[in-house]
Amino acid sequence: MHPQQLIGLGKLTYSSIKDTSPYSFAIFGVNYAHRGINRRLLRYGGEDIRPDVFGIEVTNYCSRVCEGCYVPEEIRNDMEVIDEHLLLSSISQAKKFGIRNFGFLGGEPMNKHTIPLTLKAVSKNPLLSFVYCTNGDYIAKNDVSYFQKHNNVGFLLSLDGFEDMNDSIRGKNAYSNVMDASKQLSSLRKIISASVTVRDNNIDEVFSDDFINHLIDNGFKYVVWIKYKHNGSGINNDELSDEEFIKRLGDLKKSTMTKPIFQQTNIFGDFFTFKRRSAHHTIYMGIEGDIHIDREEILSHRGNLNKNTLEEILKSIRKEYSTKYNF
Ligand code: SF4
Fold it and tell me: Which of 2, 10, 93, 271 has the most beta carbons within 10 angstroms of its beta carbon?
């Protein structure tokens, strides 16, 4: 860690204590630290490949049509939601396996059917962290103050630039809904973070001082820079090379070290190390229990939790999973 990053971390800790619930701060802090400590312990024990984040796709449905969305259009119109038993049992199995950080994904994971269901899992597991990875549409249009009592819930809002850029990628009112959602969630003292997909055509904008300050000013404590991977569905191939992405991240790191925002990338880990090994080791489950290891390859199944245990599935894909994280 660069000494200047300690300044940023200090400011972030101060603003988090000031702006968010101390219980949330403690739960998310402990579970995040658990991830790192557990990983080191496993390595000392000769085991390297356990996932530490479990992304659960609670529905494939989403009414938006963002450019480059990983969810194929044919399943994005399906309103089915995950079975309650599968949701709860997969979480308890992952918990036994040492996973404490969970994401609710979609499609769009926040609608009137998925919220009551996912809150059952949240209430049953008050010491695990749950993050809704959302486009903010539902929050912007509804009163979600009932989330205030759930200290183990945070929100990851999708934002790919200022209004013109963001809405050209994510559709009409996507930007204003995220901003409205961030206001409401901040007033509830929830931990909010931004998920920013970085492409050739928005990197100058989202890596600018103005944009980072805009996130900080609007209460975002954490940003995940997702390297856009072209899946053939977008009009343009805006994918950056890994080399270009890591070079630009290095420049960004230098210019933002003292800012009060935690930064992480989906493939190069956090801003303290930029190592693939420090990235979240995520595993995903679809609504039918199918496990996949790449968000972008939502239909590439590696096993099914209705038929096999997580441990069995991971054993069978050990090599592939460890290659992904460069062990
Ligand atoms: S909001 Fe998410 S799930 Fe919906 S279309 Fe956009 S990227 Fe896909």
Answer: 271
In the chain, the number of structural domains is 1
pLDDT of residue 302: 86
CA of 76 to the centre of ligand 1 (A): 9
Of the ranges 56-65, 184-193, 243-252, 303-312, which one carries the lowest mean pLDDT score?
303-312
Cα(264)–Cα(267) distance, rounded to whole angstroms? 9
Note the maximum CA span of the chain.
51
Rounded-to-integer distance, Cα 179 and Cα 28, Å: 23
Phi, psi (deg, nearest 5) at residue 268: -110, 20
Q: From ligand 1's centre to the CA of 106, what distance in Å?
A: 8
Instruction: Tell whether ligand 1 has an atom less than 6 A from the beta carbon of residue 121.
Output: no
Instruction: Round the CA-based radius of gyration of the chain to a whole number and report it.
Output: 19
Query: Which ligand 1 atom sits closest to the C-alpha of 171?
Result: 6
Which segments of the chain are extended strands (E)? Answer: 53-57, 101-105, 129-134, 153-158, 191-198, 220-227, 262-265, 269-270, 282-285, 291-292
> What CATH number is attached to the domain comprising 206?
3.20.20.70
Q: Which domain holds residue 115?
A: 3-324
Choosing from 67, 170, 298 the residue with most ligand 1 atoms within 8 A of its CB, the one to mutate for a pocket test is 170
Distance CA 29, CA 14 (A): 13
Beta bridge partners of residue 292, listed in sequence order: 284
Whether the CA torsion 104, 107, 108, 113 is positive or negative: it is negative
Residue 205, sorted as left (phi over 0), alpha (psi -120 to 50) or beta, turns out to be: alpha
pTM over 0.90: yes
